[in-house]
């Protein structure tokens, strides 16, 4: 990685199995030519068999990590992932306030886990709406997350965020359609739905790829399209579903 590579601040959880969270985020950002700056806010106990526990780091600790990352050079973009708790969400929003409107902030609202065992409560969804989403450049919910946050109403979401990419992976039909909503336009990205079975880390990877592309200077619609095309190509490489029915990691090679 060269000194000229744009720097992407990654905020979220550590997955000890490596299938999601900051480990995957950092890999994806590197694959897209940017420098990852992973700052953990949450430690998790999870693997492909399920999500077991989320342990928040003390705010005083992660704030020191965040300060160290920010003091080391300019940021090109910020991406948030698993936050786990309303209190963490509110504190993070306060820490990110100075960056809002200056650099892209991509919010992936992690409210569940592909492997099961994680279901966010109403307090966390409320904390997202009250504190973090007003700072976001882009929100990247899947269909269940959009339902939890805004009752499925993308137009209501646009009252808080200038843009949201609604991911169609949880939908039905021959094509999976991601829809980018902004306050002035809309873009649809339709791709064949691939019979790969459950895959861990797709949401993390897509949002991280978008953040890296934005840090590199891409326009929002271009970044969303290119990141989605890249994700589809990675899914295609996985082939048929696992015979044990368990979720597979996105990046297997």
Describe the structure.
The protein has 253 residues and is of the alpha/beta class. The protein is 36% helix and 24% strand. The chain has eight helices and eleven strands. The chain has helices spanning 21-31, 59-71, 86-96, 122-132, 143-150, 154-157, 202-215, 220-238; strands at residues 7-14, 35-47, 50-56, 77-80, 105-107, 138-139, 163-166, 175-182, 186-192, 199-200, 248-249. The protein has a six-stranded mixed sheet. Strands 7-8-9 form a three-stranded antiparallel sheet. Helix 1 packs across helix 7 (202-215), helix 3 (86-96) runs parallel beside helix 4 and helix 7 (202-215) packs antiparallel against helix 8. It starts with 6 loop residues before the first strand and ends with a strand.
Summarize the helices and strands and which ones pair or pack.
Elements: E1 7-14, H1 21-31, E2 35-47, E3 50-56, H2 59-71, E4 77-80, H3 86-96, E5 105-107, H4 122-132, E6 138-139, H5 143-150, H6 154-157, E7 163-166, E8 175-182, E9 186-192, E10 199-200, H7 202-215, H8 220-238, E11 248-249
Parallel strand pairs: 1-2, 1-4, 4-5, 5-6, 10-11
Antiparallel strand pairs: 2-3, 7-8, 8-9
Helix pairs in contact: 1-7, 3-4, 7-8
Q: Which band does the percent of strand residues land in?
A: 15-25%
State the helix count. 8
Shape category: globular
Please tally the β strands and state the result: 11
Succession of helices and strands:
EHEEHEHEHEHHEEEEHHE
List the strand order in the largest sheet.
3-2-1-4-5-6
Main β sheet profile:
6 strands, mixed
Mean pLDDT: 91
Computed structural class = alpha/beta
Computed Rg: 17 Å
Oligomer: single chain
How much helix is in the residues?
25-40%
What low-confidence regions span 5 or more consecutive residues with pLDDT below 50? none
How far apart are the first and last residues' alpha carbons, in Å? 20 Å
């Amino acid at each position: 990685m060269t000194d000229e590579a744009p720097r992407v601040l990654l905020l979220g959880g550590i997955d000890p199995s490596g299938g999601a969270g900051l480990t995957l985020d950092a890999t994806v950002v590197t694959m897209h030519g940017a420098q990852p700056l992973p700052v953990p806010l949450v430690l998790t106990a999870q693997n492909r068999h399920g999500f077991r526990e989320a342990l928040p780091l003390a705010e005083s600790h992660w704030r020191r990590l965040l300060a160290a990352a920010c003091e080391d050079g300019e940021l090109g973009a910020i991406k948030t992932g698993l936050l786990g708790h309303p209190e963490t969400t509110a504190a993070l929003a306060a820490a990110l306030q100075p960056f809002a409107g200056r650099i892209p902030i991509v919010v992936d609202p992690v409210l569940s886990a592909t492997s099961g065992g994680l279901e966010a409560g109403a307090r966390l969804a409320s904390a997202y709406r009250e504190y973090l989403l007003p700072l976001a450049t882009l929100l990247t919910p899947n269909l269940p997350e959009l339902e939890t946050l805004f009752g499925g109403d993308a137009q209501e979401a646009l009252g808080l965020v200038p843009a949201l990419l609604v991911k169609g992976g949880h939908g039905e039909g021959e094509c999976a359609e991601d829809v980018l909503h902004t306050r002035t336009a809309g873009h649809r990205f339709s791709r064949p739905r691939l019979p790969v079975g459950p895959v861990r880390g797709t949401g993390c990877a897509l949002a991280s790829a978008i953040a890296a592309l934005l840090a590199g200077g891409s326009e929002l619609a271009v970044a969303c399209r290119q990141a989605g095309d890249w994700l589809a190509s990675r899914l295609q490489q996985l082939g048929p579903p696992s015979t044990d029915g368990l979720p597979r990691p996105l990046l297997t090679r």
